[in-house]
């Protein structure tokens, strides 16, 4: 098993470094839509027309409490949290071009996948999935996304 430690931050760190050198516009977004205040990472980071969402888990918005109900409930809440975060920044699930899915138990993949499919209407983002040896807050599922959004 691969131990994952803040994969979103590693992706963002590389992106910010490259963007800074190329004169890109970088905005750190922390509206408190889903994640509580005081966390050591941004809910999302916008680099020009690309929106990078930090990994989302199935917490009740504004808390660090996972919803009860196991993989099914957490999967729905995770996807709802992603939708809320996108909408807070003028985007939608239709703007998502890539998702990375991390499961605490890869055998729960098919359960997650059935729920995931209901959040997209035929145009599915590119996607990677992997099993992880532990996720933040003891979550069963974590999903991070990249979306392309219109310029303001």
Give structural notes.
A 6-stranded mixed β-sheet has the order 1-2-3-6-4-5, with helices on both faces. By secondary structure, the chain is α+β, with helices and mostly antiparallel strands. It starts with 6 loop residues before the first helix and ends with a strand. It contains 3 helices and 6 strands.
How would you briefly describe this protein structure?
The chain has 152 residues and is an alpha+beta fold. The chain is built from 3 helices and 6 strands, in the order H-E-E-E-H-E-H-E-E.
Keywords:
single chain; 152 residues; alpha+beta; 60s Ribosomal Protein L30, Chain: A; 6-stranded mixed sheet; 3 helices; disordered N terminus
Structural topology:
Elements lengths: L6 H15 L4 E4 L14 E4 L2 E4 L16 H19 L7 E8 L5 H9 L8 E6 L9 E8 L4
Parallel strand pairs: 4-5
Antiparallel strand pairs: 1-2, 2-3, 3-6, 4-6
The number of domains is 1
Work out the number of β strands. 6
Which value, in Å, is the CA radius of gyration?
15 Å
**CATH class group:** Alpha Beta
Helix run count:
3
Order of strands, main sheet, comes to 1-2-3-6-4-5
For the terminal residues, how far apart are their CA atoms? Answer: 42 Å
Low-confidence stretches: 1-19
Portion of residues within helices: 25-40%
Mean pLDDT: 85
What is the CATH superfamily? RutC-like
Query: In one word, what is the shape?
Result: globular
Largest sheet: 6 strands, mixed
Instruction: Indicate the CATH architecture.
Output: 2-Layer Sandwich
Going by helix content, strand content and strand pairing, the class is alpha+beta
- The CATH topology is given as 60s Ribosomal Protein L30, Chain: A
Order of helices and strands: HEEEHEHEE
- Beta-strand portion reads 15-25%
């Amino acid at each position: 098993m691969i131990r994952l430690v803040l994969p979103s931050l590693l992706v963002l760190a590389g992106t910010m470094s490259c963007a800074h050198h190329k004169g890109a516009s970088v905005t750190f977004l922390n509206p408190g839509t889903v994640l509580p205040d005081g966390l050591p990472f941004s809910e999302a980071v916008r680099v020009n027309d690309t929106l990078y969402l930090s990994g989302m888990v199935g917490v009740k918005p504004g808390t660090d409490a996972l919803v009860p109900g196991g993989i099914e409930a957490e999967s729905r809440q995770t996807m709802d949290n992603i939708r809320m975060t996108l909408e807070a920044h003028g985007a939608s699930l239709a703007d998502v071009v890539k998702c990375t899915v991390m499961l605490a138990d890869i055998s729960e993949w098919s359960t997650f996948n059935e729920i995931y499919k209901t959040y997209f209407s035929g145009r599915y983002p590119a996607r990677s999935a992997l099993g992880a040896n532990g996720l933040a807050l003891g979550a069963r599922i974590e999903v991070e996304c990249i979306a392309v959004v219109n310029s303001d």
